[in-house]
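Q: What does the assembly look like in three dimensions?
Context provided by user:
Components: two
Sequences:
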Amino acid sequence: MRRARRLLLVSLLAAPLLAQDTTRVVEGVRVGITYTPGLRPGLLMLGVPRLALLDSVRAIVERDLDFSDRFEMITLPGSDSLTLAIGVGAATRGATGPFVNYALYEALGADYAVSVTDRADSGLSVVVYDVKGQGVRRIVPVTVANLADPGFRMAVHRATDEVVRAAAGTPGIAATRLLFVQNGRVYRVDADGGDVVPLSEGGAGAFSATWAPDGYRAVYTEFSRGLGRLVVHDVASGRRDVVPPTTEFLNFAPAWSPDGKTLAFSRSNEEGTQVYAYNLAEHCCLQRLTAGRFSDNLSPTFSPDGRRIAFASTRAGTPQIYAMSVDGTEQELFAPFDYGVTGSSYAPEWSPDGLHLAFHRDVAGSFQIFVMDVASRTVRQLTSAGRNEDPTWAPDGRHLAFVSSRTGTRQLWVMDMDTGRVRQLTRLNGTRLPSWSPRISGPTNH
Amino acid sequence: MRRATPIILGIVVLVIAAACGGNPPPPPPEPNADSLAALERERLAREQAVRDSIERARREAEERIRRAAEDSLAALRRTTEEVRGMLAAMINFDYDRSDIRPGDAQILDQKLAILNANPNLQVEIVGHCDERGSDEYNLALGNRRALAAKQYLVSRGIEAGRIATRSMGEEQPLNPASDESAWAQNRRDEFSITAGGDMLMRPPGM
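A: Here is the predicted structure of the complete assembly.
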C-alpha cells in the first residue's frame, strides 16, 4: 500500500528521471530506485532559503550523502526550492517547532529527511529527521560557517559523515582525501573531487604516495639523481623529512603500519627488489623482510591489526600476491592463482576492516580490479570496462578508488563494492597511484 | 847648370800640367752613401733571407708537428666519439621480460670489448619499461633489466664495481606514443659513462 503510493508519487513527480544508469551520476538528478529498492533507507534532502551559505552547505551535504551510497536519494524537481522545506506548505505549526510534513516525506519514500538550518547563534546545523518516528534524529552543528574559510568544505564533510552515522549507524567517508600522482607531482583531492591541491614540489619527480594513519602526513618517493628516496610530508605545516636509510638506492611503494611506527617499502638495488621495514618512531633498525636473488618482492600493505604484510612477488615467475608476518617469517601464497593461466597480480591493499584484499590483475592484456575475501580466499573481479589498476580503500571498507582508462585518459574513479556504483573522481590529465586517507577528524590548514 | 834647374822644374810642371790634361784629377774614390746603403741592404736582405728561411723551415716543421699532433688528437677524439657511440647503443626487451635477447648479445659484446680496452672506464646502466606494465612493478622490472645487462658483462670478466645500475620504470619513455612500436622502443637499457670516458681506445679488431 505504502509502496504503491510511493511509486505513484514518484512517477508523477519524477517521470522523466526514472531511467537512470546507477553507474552514472547526473548532476543533481538521481532517483535511486534502479538498485534493489527497499534495501537502503530512502533519504530526502530538504530545500533551504536561497542564501549562498545555506545553498552551498546543502549542495555539499546532498552530494556527500549520495556518494556515501548508503541511501536511496530521493531527488525531485524543485526539491531544492522551498516547496519541501521545513515549515513551508502547511497552515499550522507543530507544537514544539516548525512544521515538518512527515506524511509527505513518507509518501515520497523517505526514511530520513535532512535539512540545513540557521542557528540562533548564527551558526549552521544539519538536522536529521526520522520520518517514520516523526521526530528529530540528530542535530549536527557545522563547525565552520564561513564560505571564505579554507576549512569550510571539510567542516561540512565532517557534518555529513555524522549525518550518515545518525541514519546508517556508521560514519560516512566525506571527510577524507586522496593522494594521487600526476606528471611526477603528488596532489591531494577531497573525496568528492573538490579542492585539488599540489603537495610535493613540481619538477622533482614524485611517485607512490601514501597517507599516514593519522591522516596528516604523507610519504612518497622522490626521484633524485637516479635514486628514489622516501619523503615524509606533514600536510599542515609543509615540513618534509627524508627517511634516513632511503638516501641510497631506489625506494618506493611505501606502506605505513596501522600504529604509525613502521614504514614498509620496496627497495631496488643489486639484490633485485625486496621489501624492507624501518622503525620510523625510533629512527632505527632497517630490516629486510624478503629475500631471493632471482625474485622481486614489492608493494607491501599492512593488515589492519598490524601483524601481517601482503605484497607482490615474482617467486613463481609472474607476479602474484603473497603474505608474511611483519618480521618476514611465515611467508605464504595469499591470493590463489592457476599457474600459467591466471594473469599477473599487482599492488595489493588490505581493507581497513581487514576483511578484504584489493589488487589488480592482468586479464587479456589489460588490468582489472579484483577483491579477495580474506577469510575464504575467494577472489572476484570488480571491473571490466577499460584498464583499471592500483585500488585503494576508503576508511569505510566498501568504497574503492582506482585508476581507470575507461574514458580514454587515466583518471581516478570510485566504486562502491556493495552497490557496484561507479563515479569519476578526477577530470585531470593522466592521474595515477591513488591513496585514500583515513577520516580526517581535526581541522587542517586547508 | 843653375839655369837648367828651373827649366827642368818648368818642364816638370808642364809635364804635370800636361798630364792633368788641364782638368782636375779625379778625386780619390770617396765612400758613396747610396751604394753603402744598398750594400748594407743587400747584406741585411741576405741575412734576413737566411733567417727567414730558417724561420720558415722552423715554422713549417712546427706546423707539420702541430698538424700531426692535431691529426692524432682529432683521430683520438673521433675514436672516443665512435667508442662512446657504440657504448651508448641501447638494448631492448620483450614485454615483461628481463632476459637478454639473442640479437642484443652482440651489442653487449661490443660494450664488453670496450670495457676491456679501457680499464678506467666506468658505466651506468638504466633499465626502462613501457607504460603497459603496472606502475610500481615497472620499477622492479627496470631494475631487473639493468641487472641482466650488468650480469652479462660481469660474468664475462668485467669487475662489478665498474658498472652501476638503476631503474626508471616507465617514468622516462623515449617515445611518448601509446602503440606497439613506441612500447618496443621504451623497453630498454640505456648505457652512459660515469668515469674514465675522456679518451677512449678502440678495442682491437673494431
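Follow-up: The radius of gyration of chain A is 24 Å.
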